[in-house]
Each structure stands twice: as C-alpha cells, then as structure tokens.
Write a structure and sequence with these properties.
GO terms for molecular function: unfolded protein binding. By secondary structure, this protein is α+β, with helices and mostly antiparallel strands. The protein has eight helices and eleven strands. The longest helix has 28 residues.
Length: about 325
C-alpha cells in the first residue's frame, strides 16, 4: 500500500489526538471505545481472530518500520563509515510491565535492542489466560494461533519470571526455543518449548514480549502467505478445513478491497432499487451511443425505456 493511502486518515486521527490533549492512552481508549460500540464481535468476540492478536500484528508492522527508519537515519548520519550498515536485531524483545494499582502510572514497555528504552503511560488492561486458539492449537505448555500472514505464540511462565533477563528466546527462520531461569538456582534454565517450524518465518520482522509472571508472547511473520497445520513439526496437525480462513479486510491488496467495496455497494443499491455500478457503466455507454453518428435517436432526449423497447424489437441489432 502506498504511503499516500496509509496517510489518508491522518487529518481525522490528528483531530482525535488533539481532542484528547495529545494523550496516547486516551487516544487508544477512544479508538477501542469506538470499536466496542460499532463492531464489538469482530474485535472482542470469541468467534473471531483474537483482537489482541490483530493489535499485536499492527504494532509489530509499524515498530519494524520505525526501526528500519532509525537504522537508515543512523547510516545517513555516519555516511556509512567503513562500509558497515547498522540493522535491527533479528528478534526484538519487549517486556511489558504491569501494576495492579489502578491509580498509579506504570512503565508500559521496556525494549531491549542494544540499549534500554523505557516509555511511561497510564495503566492498561492485561488479558491473562491462554491464547484464543481458534486458528491454531493448545499444546499444553504453549498455545498458538494464526492469520494467513503471521502467527502468535503464548508460553505461560512461572510467577517468579518478572524480568526479560530471566527469559532466553532463540528465534531463527526455521526454529524456535524458549527457556526461563529456574527460581531455585540462578544460572540453571528450564526449557519451555523448542522445535522446528514446518515453514520458514521472517526473523527480521518477528519479536517476543514478556508479561511479567504470566506469559511470553512471540509474534512471527510468515515468509509466505499460507495456512499452517502445525506450529512445530513435532505436533499433531490441525484440520485446516475447521479454521476461520477469512482474511482481515485491511490485509487484502487494494484491488481486492476495491472490488469488495463495489460488491457491497452494488448489493446496497439493489436492496434500495437503484442502479448497480455495472448498470451505471452500461447507461454511460448507451448515453454516448444515443447521439452517436448514425444513431436513430440522435437529437432526441435520452430515454432508456425507448432503448429497452428497441432492443427487444431488434432495432439496435440493425445498422
């Protein structure tokens, strides 16, 4: 999608942000409130792809864009000294810190990509429990779900796992491994999950996060658009005929989205007894032909009912 298309809502969104005193938490609250009022089932309902997963998908996409832009700015500033081009790490770590005190502000994100960066904001709700596995499986010590473009994995961890340094994630294009530090003995690690993927992922656009004392989440971008019947080759395959294979509208190519909009508009026009887009295009052609050279109707006021009668009588078929 072009940058022009992506930025087309900027004026409206800037207006909302300004109305919320430029508060990011208040802005998100307004957005999710809108979704709750107008399409709650698609975002919060249990029959759809997890809303938490959709948010993570968009977050990862734009965070990767930010990291790429920052790396490019660093290259431009240093004029590519010694021919070394800095790139983002293969897998990024995000530690989400929470607090049960409602009135206190808490750290929202601590990122580890070479330097420690802490961003502060208001409390936000955390969705505990296991992942919605409608498009994946609950494998006991971890669960996973997917869209046609990416995967989300959740691994429950002991309540003693509070910091990112207590977690080790090995993420390659063809495999993954997650271990946590044993509470009883520093330096000893317990393997939580490990295995090979049935298909490759894009390591440069994958990341993992920790919700302290709850779980590790791993976001994986697929190398190609396809539905996986398992996360790891060691698993029993799921029945792909039973999954929700519908694609999110925002992930479709612009041409397909335009075609869907046209189909929906045509259906609405038919329900209201109005002309569809095909009928309007045909009418435009007929209007041009009405006054074309050699037309028996040239110079007369356009009347589509006359054309219907002429067509049924075979008049339009003669030259």
């Amino acid at each position: 999608m072009s940058s022009e298309c992506e930025a087309r809502h900027d004026p409206d969104l800037l207006g909302i942000l300004a109305a919320e005193d430029n508060s990011i938490p208040a802005f998100f609250n307004a957005v999710f409130g809108f979704l709750a009022r107008h399409c709650p089932e698609e975002i919060y309902g249990s029959t759809q792809i997890s809303g938490e997963h959709l948010v993570s998908q968009s977050y990862c996409k734009w965070r990767q864009q930010y990291l790429a832009n920052r790396a490019q700015e660093s290259v431009d500033a240093s004029h590519c000294e010694d021919g070394v081009v800095p790139v983002p790490p293969v897998a990024k770590e995000v530690v989400v810190e929470t607090d049960n005190e409602q009135e206190q502000k808490t750290p929202v994100v601590v990122e580890h990509d070479g330097t420690d960066i802490t961003t502060h904001g208001s409390n936000r709700p955390v969705c505990p429990g296991r992942l919605d596995t409608n498009n994946g499986a609950d494998c006991g010590n971890y669960s996973w779900t997917q869209t046609i473009e990416d995967l989300e994995v959740r691994i429950p961890v002991p309540s003693t796992i509070r910091k990112g340094r207590q977690v080790q994630v090995s993420l390659q294009s063809g495999s993954v491994g997650v271990s946590v530090e044993e509470a009883s003995s520093r330096g000893l690690w317990r393997n939580m999950m490990e295995g090979k993927f049935p298909h490759e992922v894009r390591g440069d656009e994958s990341m993992w996060s920790l919700v302290p004392g709850e779980h590790v989440s791993i976001h994986l971008e697929k190398s190609e658009e396809r539905w996986w019947d398992r996360l790891l080759v060691s698993e029993e395959p799921i029945d792909l005929k039973q999954i929700d294979a519908e694609r999110d509208f925002s992930t479709l190519p612009e041409e397909e989205r335009q075609r869907i909009r046209e189909l929906m508009w045509n259906r609405q026009q038919k329900e209201q007894g109005k002309s569809t887009s095909d009928q309007k295009r045909l009418e435009g052609v007929l209007r041009e032909a009405w006054n074309a050279e050699g037309s028996p109707f040239k110079g007369q006021m356009y009347d589509p009912s006359v054309l219907d009668l002429a067509a049924s009588g075979g008049i339009l078929g003669h030259t």
